[in-house]
Write a structure and sequence with these properties.
13% strand, 44% helix, 7-stranded parallel beta sheet, binds uridine-5'-diphosphate-glucose, 13 strands, 470 residues
Length: 470
């Protein structure tokens, strides 16, 4: 096969100041640097120090520190979303917008071919002044954009969107299964609220999407092809997919305390549960959750943050719980090596919140998948896995969003017992997907195609540069 020749690009990355955004931008940077492209990565100083270890190509990826300016109400020293409670992130967005001069100065000096961004809606303005191409890179599923952040939503300035309106997908939305249920609509109501000074979240993102040269999404056609096409039509822009861009898994060594405990059980019998880095449950819901695991009668390992109002997991556990499950159940209040746990042979079921990372890790595992989503994109990811692909089951909630121990236990049992129709169906479908994803070329093909698209996008810029030189 004749390989198409690609030239080396200089790409500037300018992600929103949140770990969940900086990390995937950096993972993509690593993939691009692996192919010889040069990356200038703009980020606040503290995040640079924290994430330096993730830079796998320091010869090609250069971090450039930014200074987050003071904004009234923003705690001094706050630089990323992890430094502030969620209701103050609007002030961080206001600080981001004040950085236009600083970013402009840097971009003039760096002179990149293309800038990747996600929240700084003013990047296209700089592009026309300085002369670079722009790619709006979305790090959550295509469904989150398609259902909430398209022009067809028609959310004009200062209009607050109702839950009823959010439940209705926008005109032309291509899926009848990846939708929100009544109690879930409020998880997206933030889009019409202010995010930064005098601009709503909806306005910010739709501006970004309208003014960029190309849209890019961290997904694949096999999962969300029709949703990507819908976004492309809505914005009349090309949509370049990067695939999931996950780091090479490499074999993580599981800590002895977990390996020894898991080794005590038969293959495929342990239920593992984790809800990512953000979810903090209400105490009552937390207690109901752990009682649900007790009710299954199976061994279980749960790794969660303490619920709201508690400083430790132990103080929040239901009365007598620890004695009743001793020897077969652990609720751990700290971080645990999720990918390594998932590949332990004793683990047979993964109960998770369907955050983007966990969604892919569950798809790549051999475990049965049970989902309890909490936030907007997690709900849509869940619909994708449970309703479209039919590789997982979702725990039923009532109209107030509450899930009972019985519903949790029922969902786990229905995928774990032998000869369960649902269990067999999700297992078979899941098997096909994990095989598909595990192919060696799965991620590399995406990146190669993605780079070809970028090359075409910046070709005219390069030509005019050449003309100037000649
Ligand atoms: O005890 C734990 C818990 C999690 N993880 C890892 O942490 C990552 C968690 O990522 P993800 O599943 O995406 O969850 P969140 O951290 O909650 O993700 C945030 O960011 C995602 C986009 O990147 C969104 O999809 C989610 O809604 C948002 O909560 C995964 O790689 C897990 O393997 C561990 O290693 N140990």
């Amino acid at each position: 096969m004749v390989q198409e020749k690609t030239s080396h690009l200089h790409i500037a990355m300018f992600p929103w100041f949140a770990t969940g955004h900086i990390t995937p931008f950096l993972q993509l940077s690593n993939k691009l640097a692996e192919k010889g492209h040069q990356i200038s990565f703009l980020l606040p100083n503290k995040a640079r120090i924290q994430l330096n270890y993730m830079n796998l190509h320091p010869n090609l990826i250069t971090f450039h520190s930014l200074t987050v300016p003071p904004v009234e109400g923003l705690p001094p020293g706050a630089e990323t979303a992890s430094d502030v409670p969620i209701y103050l992130t609007t002030l961080l967005a206001a600080a981001l917008d004040l950085m236009i001069g600083q970013v402009k100065e840097l971009l003039v000096k760096l002179n990149p071919d293309v800038v990747f961004y996600d929240m700084a809606h003013w990047i296209p303005e700089l592009a026309s002044e300085i002369g670079f191409k722009t790619v709006h890179y979305n790090v959550v599923c295509a469904a989150s954009i398609a259902i909430a952040l398209v022009p067809s939503r028609k959310i004009s300035k200062n209009r607050v969107i109702s839950d009823e309106e959010l439940m209705e997908p926008p005109t032309g939305y291509p899926s009848s299964t990846i939708v929100l249920r009544k109690h879930e609509a409020k998880s997206l109501s933030f889009i019409s609220l202010e995010f930064g000074k005098g601009i709503s979240f909806y306005e910010r993102i739709t501006n970004c999407l309208m003014k960029c040269d190309a849209i890019s999404i961290r997904t694949c056609r096999e999962l969300e092809g029709s949703l990507c096409d819908y976004i492309s039509r809505e914005y009349e822009k090309p949509v370049f997919l990067t695939g999931p861009v996950l780091p090479e898994s490499g074999k993580q060594h599981l800590e002895d305390q977990w390996a020894n405990w898991l080794n005590k059980f038969e293959p495929g019998t342990v239920v593992f549960c984790a809800f990512g880095s953000q979810v903090v449950l209400e105490k009552k819901q937390f207690q109901e959750l752990v009682l649900g695991f007790e009710l299954t009668g199976r061994p279980f390992l749960v790794a969660l943050k303490p619920p709201s109002g508690a400083t430790t997991i132990e103080e929040a556990l239901p009365e007598g719980f620890e004695d009743r499950v001793r020897g077969r159940g652990i609720v751990h209040g700290g971080w645990i090596q999720q990918p390594a746990i998932l590949s332990h042979p004793s683990v047979g079921c993964f109960v998770n919140h369907c955050g983007f990372g966990s969604m892919w890790e569950s798809l790549m595992s051999n475990c049965q998948i049970v989902l309890i989503p909490h936030l907007g994109d997690q709900i849509l990811n869940t619909r994708l896995l449970a309703e479209e692909l039919k590789v997982a089951v979702e725990v039923e909630r009532d109209e107030n969003g509450w899930f009972s121990k019985e519903n949790l236990s029922r969902a786990i049992r229905c995928v774990m017992v032998e000869d369960s129709k649902v269990g067999d169906l999700v297992k078979e479908n899941h098997g096909k997907w994990s095989e598909f994803i595990a192919r060696e070329c799965f991620m590399s093909e995406f990146i190669e195609k993605f780079i070809q698209n970028l090359d075409t996008l910046v070709a005219d810029k390069k030509e005019s540069k050449m003309r100037n030189v000649l």
